[in-house]
Amino acid sequence: MGEVVLAVHEVDKHIAKQKIIHSVSMEVREGQVLALCGGNGAGKSTMLRMIVGIAQPTGGTIEVGGLQWKKDRRGYAGSIGYMPDDYLFGHGLSAEETLSFWASLRKVSKMRVDETLRLVGLHDVRSKAVSSFSKGMRQRLLFAQALLSKPRLLVMDEPTNGLDPYWMESFAKLVLMAKREGHAIIFSTHQLQVAEAIADQVVFLKQGRIVEEGTVSVFRERYGDQGLQQAFHRLFGFQADAAGLQEGNSHELF
Ligand SMILES: Nc1ncnc2c1ncn2[C@@H]1O[C@H](COP(=O)(O)OP(=O)(O)OP(=O)(O)O)[C@@H](O)[C@H]1O
Q1: Structural domains in the chain (count)
Q2: Whose CA is nearest to atom 12 of ligand 1?
Q3: Which residues of 132-144 are buried (b: 16+ CB within 10 A; e: fewer)?
Q4: Residues 53 and 70 both lie in one domain
Q5: Which of 134, 150, 166 lies at the terminal end of a domain, its last residue?
């Protein structure tokens, strides 16, 4: 087993006297993918924002590569590639110009920009304006941005939200490629078929608490063939259809 890259220990978060995260602990190792699932308002984005250092826990600790944000902000931030759930790209810039801008901020070489464009399959369209890109292509560019400095940890908030099945599958393959390269990966999703296809570990949050966790095969043992969907039904108690999940969607990605 690879080294632990992300260690979250008994993290709490209060916002305006309300406790929205309750004693959450989890770990992600090198070459592992963790999917954070749960209904709307479960606390997924809040957890990810604390992991990347945009928000701070009220209690508990978060370490990335053994570093804590409070003690070494530069080292901590440098260990993380973050793909936010939405991003407004600069008007008129090409994919290459956009990535080069991010690279200059992070002191990443031109060669790495080129390499990353190839990795995510955008090299052939690198001179095209990002404004002409489909949502799937923009997500690939955001993913490239997160990969630029070869961070130990990749954090992605709803990376396949709004993608059609073709782009969802091709994005899932990119994530698996990053996993093979040894990145530790944590992402949030409402799309349980994506979690089922690429995650080693799945954590369900409900009202800021971990209510169920395990590998995809453990979920199948506990809940049957449609493991994650069934878990979602039991935990959240409403129709999977209402959450955009259709029976039979799982196992179809690959
Ligand atoms: N800045 C804030 N001020 C007040 N409440 C907040 C703030 N940020 C988050 N919350 C509350 O914390 C809870 C968790 O929100 P969060 O956005 O983390 O959930 P989520 O699981 O990402 O939801 P979704 O799937 O809808 O994006 C919600 O009840 C939300 O209203």
Answers
A1: 2
A2: 20
A3: ebeebbbbbbbbb
A4: yes
A5: 150
